[in-house]
Amino acid sequence: MSQNRRVGVIGAGSFGSAIANLLAENQKVLLYEHNKDAAAFLRKERTVRNFALHQNVEIAESLEQVASNCFLLFPVVPSAYFKNMIIDFSPYLRPDHIMIHATKGLHCEFDIEKADAKTISLKEIKTMSELILQETGIVRVGCLAGPNLALEIMEKQPAATVIASRFNEVISEGQAALRTERFQVYGSKDILGIELSGVLKNYVAIACGALNGLGYGENARALLITRGMAEMIYIGKALGADKRAFLGIAGIGDLIATCTSPKSRNYSVGYRIAKGEKLDDILRDIGEVAEGVRTLKIGKLIVDHLGASAPLLQTIAKVLFEDLAMERALKFLMRYPVSADAEYLDI
Amino acid sequence: MIGRQYNPNDYPLPYVIEDMRQWPISRLSDDKQNFVEEVKSRSLARLKERYKTSKNLREELAKVLYQEKIRLTEKAWKADPPDEKKFWNSIKSKLIKSDQLNNVSQDSEAVILEEIVNRYIEEIAGEFNIGTFKFARTILPQFFGRILSATPGRWLKNIGANVKTIHEKIPIIGDIEKIRHLSTKGTVIIVPTHFSNMDSILVGWILSELGLPAFTYGAGLNLFSIDLLAYFMNRLGAYKVDRRKKNGVYLECLKNYSTIAIQRGAHSIFFPGGTRSRSGSLEGKLKLGLLGTAIEAQKMHFKNFPEETAPKIYVVPCVINYHFVLEAQALISDYLKETGKERFYKENDEYSTSFKLMRFIWKFLSASSSLSVSFGEVMDVVGNKVDFDGNSHNHLGQKINVKNYFLTNGELKDDHQRDEEYTKILGERIVNNYYRYNVVFTSHLVCFTVFELLKKQQNNVDVFTLLRTLPDDVSVPYNDVVEGINKLKERLKIMYDKGEVLMSPELRWNVDKIIDHGMRNINLYHPISPLIKLSNGNIGSEDLKLLFYYHNRLNGYGLERFI
Predict the structure, then answer these.
(1) Which CATH class is domain A6-192?
(2) Cβ–Cβ of B400/A94 closer than 8 Å?
(3) Shortest Cα distance from B242 to chain A (angstroms)?
(4) Residue B297 — φ and ψ, nearest 5°?
(5) How far is residue A342 from each of residues A224, A309, A313, measured CA to CA in Å?
(6) In chain A, which residues have their Cβ closer than 8 Å to the Cβ of B396?
(7) Is the CB of residue A92 less than 8 Å away from at least one CB of chain B?
(8) Among partner residues B396, B404, B422, which is closest to A96 by beta-carbon distance?
(9) How far, in Å, CA of B456 to CA of B399, rounded?
(10) CATH fold label, A200-346
């Protein structure tokens, strides 16, 4: 373990804590939790959802303490709260900080509940790395994405992730901090592609959960995953990303994990919708944020704004927000004209 | 604190350092031998680091030799030293010998490398001579001033006329006081746009009018073929850049020359476009090699000095605005021939002898109605704004320490790829400044409007089809031009208020006057007019390519959507 390295994690939700535990195998970790009660609980009980925090994890007193003690920072905060967090953090951040976020969501400068797809500007929709660059003096920014279900990481099961950044140094520092015998860390220079892979897969996961909730099996799921990925590539392309990232660990890899696991929050949202529950009730029940629901709203705004067609996204949005019955949605999708197989490789 | 503003009558400003012998460039020149040795040894060290095994090195040397042989046979210049062939033949035979020795003598490649490095650096190195500088400084304003303020043809009679009127003809825009102040605290790098061969002379002269110590800059070796120019450039701190030599060894020497000159405090001019803008557009993509040397020098300062005393390097973008560009015709032809293809531009010798050069300058000055030079924001080497006292502030206004950009976990770290990314960021900020400090002239606006209207009229055909149309076949009703200019004026005013562009004072005039002024200025020089008024009152063009060239100056602002 490296003695003079100390890294910070912001956000002690289940994934933030899982990352903190992973990092703690290689160095000391300062974990910051915004909610004072939750932080006090963590300090006392040192458990998150029945999993013990690693002994190298210390609960931080303040963001300032994290900034002044750690050069490497991992914010793992839901996208809806990310901007407030980063604004609070900003006064303490310097250009020598390296920040690798692990938030699979988008930020909007407008109110997504009231926005009109016609009048929005795509510039007002930002990835988390863009938000970090906009709100802080940090330049060396990266993101972490991959099939990393928090519970499995807490259980110390083997897994891999991708760190993307335009700086080689961000990738190598992230690798040095995270890599263990059970955890592999790949690198990528395409940060936009990796971020969008992580973001867009969420609504496909909701759709997969719904399909399973209707009682359908593996053939249907495989179809949904494959065509879901194709749709992700098209949307990503429209937003300026390269297709390559979608075909890697953070794309298809993460898609398979979230689309096949009842442990995934997004998957369970879809599953319970298909079983007839109401979205509001499900969200209240889950407690934590299901990024997929937010992504779906933003994704629909983007697609409508571009006047593009993304049948899966548009249909699943109707199911969630306009009470379209899942059975009818499925019928519609199955009737949708199909193109050549794997045509997205040529775009 | 905002520095004081100057009036045309204030120029030339007093030198910030009165004793020219104390100027960084004088001190560099006085210590030339040591300086050159330092460049040699660092270049060698870096190259040896890059080509670790003698096999790597031998391959690289063979490549250098191969490219140099091609240069000698296909692209020889008058400025090349007479013993070039002999030198490279001897390198060839040494390389063959070392090849035969194979790995017996590990050092032989290193010796050959040193020989090449020495030759390259001796060629690059320049000098600064106070006497020549003083002479040039007396002559240039006479030259610029006399001709700009005189009626062509009568200029000899005007010797002795008021030189200062020249500054009414060439407004200088920007926070001059800040640049002057910071030039005494650190090293200033001016990065101008590049449209014309006049740029380096003009910028060099303007900087001396600002009272700044002389700047060093890389001048194309081809320009040294002209005896008169070579005489001055050799003594005014210019160093030679040979664009034909693209091999790794040469580029390393050049980079280290610039880095160490900056480290030694020499204020420098970089033309980051690398070569004159062919299309007439503002530079969008910069050549980052030389810019990278500013970052490297700043990093070296942090290595060599304690934090508080490490000298700082300041980058200042500069936009030169002309109503017309003398070489426009040749430049735009180059552009059209080669659009879509990357290629090495053959430097057109619009002037290859001293006589042609004089004629060129004469034409330029006698025809120039006005031009302007605007300086953008003063930045640090990573593109942050710098205040009057030299402190850096990021886009949020937070005060920052530039050293932090080079630290990892508290340690100063060399990381080539990281620095390359910083160079890209700096480049983006410079380009952003080019757009914001570009002064829209009447001629730019009229050309842009007329060309866009022509495009619209031809149902938005692609540019190349439009350019193939016979000029006689197309024209735009005068009233449409008036309407178009009115719309663009409105849009430009909004952009101006947001700080996105600058406007020349004439743009406040009514549209008829704007059109008249713009047309008069653009047609002053070109024998075939880019804009003409037809007998039916319409506006047409005798040379659509030229019109396209001048139209391009306002590319990149999205103005076409507002016509």
Answers:
(1) alpha beta
(2) yes
(3) 32
(4) -65, -40
(5) 13, 17, 19
(6) 90, 135-137
(7) no
(8) B404
(9) 49
(10) N-(1-d-carboxylethyl)-l-norvaline Dehydrogenase; domain 2 (1.10.1040)
